[in-house]
Amino acid sequence: MSFSTSSSRPAQVSAARSWAALVCLSVLQFLIAVDVTVVNVALPSIGNDLGVDPRGLTWVVVGYTIAGGGLLMLGGRLGDVFGRRRLLLIGTAIFGAASLMAGLADSFALLVIARLLQGAGEALALPAAMATIVLLFPEGKARSRALSVWAAVASCGLVLGFVLSGIITEHLGWRWIFLIAVPFILFVLLATVVLLPRDQKQERAPLDFLGSILLTSAPLLFAFGVVEAGENTGNLPWLAIAALIGASVAAGLFVTVERRAANPLVPLTFFHNRTRVRANLATALLSAALSTSFLLFTFYLQDELGLSPLEAGLLLLPLAVALIGAMTIVPRLLGRWGARSCIVVGLSSAGVGMIVIAIAAQFEAPAWLLIPAMLFIAAGMGFGLVGLQYAAVTEVTEEDAGVASGVQRASDQLGGSAGVTVYVGLGFTSIFHGLSPYVLSSGLAIIGLCIAGGIAARIALPNVDVTNTDSMGSS
Questions:
Q1: Would you say 185 and 95 are in contact if contact means Cβ atoms under 8 Å apart?
Q2: Which end of the chain, N or C, is less packed with Cβ atoms under 10 Å?
Q3: What is the DSSP letter of 198?
Q4: Coil vs helix vs strand at 2
Q5: Which residues of the chain have pLDDT under 70?
Q6: 109 to each of 29, 57, 101, 123, 165, how far by Cα in Å?
């Protein structure tokens, strides 16, 4: 059996089988979403076991998000060319093997490599899974319901990652946050083979491999340069300088390659729409602050207050519950307020949350005083990212809708990794004596949010039709 070329569900696939396939793909979506946040509470335990400081531990987070965000566009294109079922199997297998590798890693370098491979597996599997859902369910109510399930699973995975990390790390050890995914990955692989129809022969098209390499290399070199600069407190950090120059060269070459490529990863004409450009820039800056806040919560609760991983995970429950609530109500408010108002509320809430984190850390506040910060961060994520997601796909056509969605998700992931690298990397460096690393990291994030606010203020969008926003919020 094979997918038809139309957007409707193939006649050979029954409704029951389509929903069974959705369950299978949702398990994969949940595992990948959990993997974004599940490492946060476990980071201090990983650092103690492998002898790594908080600045170095940022690689456990940014390695995954950079590889995933940098290769995401290529992953979607590979699925179109070589078949989505095939790419789904390959990407899921890579993700599972990398999870096993991470759980068994006996050195920090090996753990970071495993996280890079996990991100690569995500980049191959997720676009193929999303496209498969669209093809399995006919346009209308069935597809809307399927995408709503997909979005809800993603949100729950992100949220539950905090709690699961605390429980697993406390009772089984940090390695099991990776190892526990392996049997579920095997289930997804088996179910994919059984439930999904074989790919049709795809029309071959040139692939922009060089563009993907450059898009991934630039943030990786940038992250390495910032971390290396923070570690070098004496002599001139030549290695860091070389890495930062390399990042700039890779970014410049990416633009040049995209201009000349026969089938570019991201057609530069896509960015002629200023609303999209501003929305993606603001997304990157907001994600940078949000990712930074997650790490600051973890480090403060465990390293400063001495809480156990389980206690830290449970204390992050207000953030989880508030995020679920925000994701539930924001699509409705988006229709009443308009996207720009939701974006401004989200950015402002995130800024207040970072201020509360800085104040709490400065005065060595007890853990419960961080709860207001968690609520503000959750509101910032719910309002800000959903509003920006809408703005980032404004005025898309059938030809560039996929590119718009891919660029928005890449902006989210790469922005988050850049924020962790710069804000936490510089905040916890030893070159700033006398300043609290939490205050410095929060201050840098607040500056980024102020810049994002200035960008968002220039986004002009009409109000959203409430009936079309039910499945939003899955960025």
A1: yes
A2: N
A3: B
A4: strand
A5: 1-13, 139-141, 143-144, 147-148, 151-152, 155, 159, 200-206, 230-236, 396-402, 430-434, 460-475
A6: 27, 11, 12, 21, 21
Please name the residue that has the structure tokens 């040049």.
256
Non-local CB neighbours of 312 within 8 Å, separated by 6+ positions: 41, 166, 297, 298, 301, 302
Residues 393-424: tens digit of each pLDDT = 777 665 566 677 778 778 888 888 888 888 88
Tell me: the pLDDT tens digits for 96-146?
A: 999 999 999 999 999 999 999 999 998 888 888 877 877 777 766 676 677
Handedness of CA 21, 22, 27, 28 (dihedral sign): positive
The residue behind tokens 């990042």 is 247
* CB-based contact 132:199 (threshold 8 Å): no
Q: How far apart are CA 475 and CA 470, in angstroms?
A: 13
CA distance 54 to 358: 17
DSSP per-residue letters across 427-448: HT-TTSTTS-HHHHHHHHHHHH
